[in-house]
Design a protein that fits this description.
The chain has 365 residues and is an alpha/beta fold. 40% of the residues lie in helices and 14% in strands. It has a seven-stranded mixed sheet with strand order 2-8-7-6-5-3-4, sandwiched between helices. Bound molecules: pyridoxal-5'-phosphate (PLP). Pyridoxal-5'-phosphate (PLP) binds next to helix 4. GO terms for molecular function: histidinol-phosphate transaminase activity. InterPro entries: Aminotrans_II_pyridoxalP_BS, Aminotransferase_I/II_large, HisP_aminotrans, HistidinolP_aminotransfase, PyrdxlP-dep_Trfase, PyrdxlP-dep_Trfase_major, PyrdxlP-dep_Trfase_small.
Length: 365
């Protein structure tokens, strides 16, 4: 066998059932997918407008350096353009970091459960994976610190954490950073940054100058509603980022993704509306959980994890009605489901279905 042996223990990413699959299987017309934390409101109307100007350029390679997007994102974040590394989604940035830093003989520390791709790429690079169980759904930073040794190359902090939605605050993060050796990179995955509104949610970009071993990840897939385009990025120290650029594929982000991201970035009013609707949706789910004494994690993201009972069973129940959510089983939390916050109407529909699930359970007791 010519394959790396690590690949034998991995599987291709399973995104869950597609809308068409569910329609066919259950003979349904209307399907609502709230399984991948995509934006239920789509994206800014400025995006399709911006794309029409590209129609004469299909034969041309994109700008590999993403000059215009780099300039715009740098201005938006108030950082230098040289501090940015763009990838085909954050997924590719996570792959680039892993490929550039991890190898046999090194280890990497992360929470469990957390976003699956940190572990996935560490395994491919043959690095040792040290997983630290969440404490009350949140990163156990003290336990994570105790796992770091001189061979630890990357610590992943998913903030807010997927699949729990919980977050590490500024004070906790600063305390943690004080204990991490400079030879260990701390990756702050802020895929849900725009949704995080807690007062003490860390402003990592202003902390970055204090920590040479920190890098911050953001994406256009979630609040910006551009998941199909694949556009994510890292913000770090220019000297570090320039080394990563050396390993990047020449044309890793498309002209379309770059143009879409530029247009979406300019429409901050759209983001504000989505964040407000998300907060209202979360509140509705909290009310539902409190009413029935169901455990849930307070979320700083656009999803909520609720311990509504056997995750697979509840998932199946909702699926038959045309609502695709995520069973916790595949996420390391089998006693519940993760639901992306939808439109107000979608949230009410899901809650109505969950009311039925709860009623059934209460009748059985
Ligand atoms: C969705 C997600 C990503 C990947 O996002 P893409 O930019 O679409 O690749 C990365 N990290 C976390 C925590 C996510 O939830």
């Amino acid at each position: 066998m010519m394959l790396k042996k690590q690949l034998l223990e991995l599987h291709a990413y399973s995104p869950g059932k597609s809308i068409d699959e569910v329609k066919r299987e259950y003979g349904l017309k209307k399907i609502v997918k709230l399984a991948s934390n995509e934006n239920p409101f789509g994206c800014s109307p400025k995006v399709p407008e911006a794309l029409t100007s590209l129609s004469g350029q299909f034969a041309l390679y994109p700008d590999g350096g993403a000059y215009e997007l780099r300039k715009q994102v740098a201005a938006h974040l108030n950082v230098e353009p040289e501090q940015l590394l763009f990838g085909s989604g954050l997924d590719e940035v996570i792959q680039m970091l892993s490929r550039s830093i991890l190898s046999a003989g090194t280890n990497t520390v992360m929470a469990k459960p957390t976003f699956s791709q940190y572990r996935h790429h560490a395994v491919i690079e043959n690095a040792e994976v040290r997983e630290v169980p969440l404490k009350d759904g949140t990163h156990d930073l003290e336990a994570m610190l105790s796992q770091i040794d001189k061979h630890t190359k990357i610590v992943w902090i998913c903030n807010p954490n997927n699949p729990t939605g919980t977050y590490v605050n500024t004070k906790e993060l600063e305390g943690f950073m004080a204990g991490v050796p400079k030879t260990t990179l701390v990756v702050m995955d802020e895929a849900y940054y725009e949704y995080a509104t807690a007062e003490d949610y860390p402003d990592t970009l202003s902390l970055l100058p204090n920590y040479e071993n920190m890098v911050v990840l953001r994406t256009f897939s979630k609040a910006y509603g551009l998941a199909s385009f694949r556009m994510g990025y890292a913000v770090g120290h220019a000297s570090f980022i320039s080394r990563l650029q050396a390993g990047r594929l020449p044309f890793n982000t498309s002209s379309f993704a770059q143009a879409a991201a530029i247009a979406a970035l300019k429409d901050q009013a759209f983001i504000e509306q989505c964040v407000t609707a998300n907060k209202q949706g979360l509140k509705r789910y909290y009310e539902f959980c409190k009413k029935h004494d169901i455990n849930y994690y307070p979320s700083q993201a656009n999803f909520i994890f609720m311990e509504v009972g056997d995750g697979n069973a509840v998932f199946q129940e909702l699926l038959q009605a045309g609502y695709i959510v995520r069973s916790g089983a595949g996420l390391g939390l089998p006693n519940g489901i993760r639901v992306t916050i939808g439109s107000q109407e979608e949230n009410e529909e899901i809650i109505a279905l969950l009311e039925k699930v709860v009623a059934k359970k209460e009748n059985c007791l």
